[in-house]
Amino acid sequence: MFALDQLVVYPAQGVGKVEAIQEREMGGLSIQFYKIRILSNNGTLLIPVANASNVGLRKVCEPAYGLELFEYLRDWSDFKGYAGQNWNRRYREYSDKLKTGDLADVAYVLKELMLISQDKDLSFGESRLMEQAMGLITMELAYTLEREQDAIRTEIEAIFSDILIKDT
Hints:
about 50% helix, five-stranded antiparallel sheet, 2 domains, 5 helices, Methane Monooxygenase Hydroxylase, Chain G, domain 1
């Protein structure tokens, strides 16, 4: 169970704060909900407490895991790229990964798209997915590492510009 004012992550939406734990009656049943305020857009979500883990609601990652994520982004030995895949199939695969809410999946999408973009132009949809993945990662890491989101983004972009320089 999440606590009041706790930072949580909702898949594809990003970091939010538990503003309240409310009880509402629906269909004759009394159901508890988390009221989550999404910090990036100030939107509000009501998520049934009993269903929170099923929809992927989780607490913000630990700082050590956040630092490990930078190392994962630096290691591109597992890069598959776009060999044999068209942009539409990649788009579906990446969209599904962003919906899991797993930070490792989001990092995978970001890394793949950043590396692909260095070799060829991304489709409009892929560009949007890359920005969404970047936003999800930078926001969560900014909160967990207590740094500015722009600084996290700059560090991630530097990782990929370093790879491009080393590759040429």
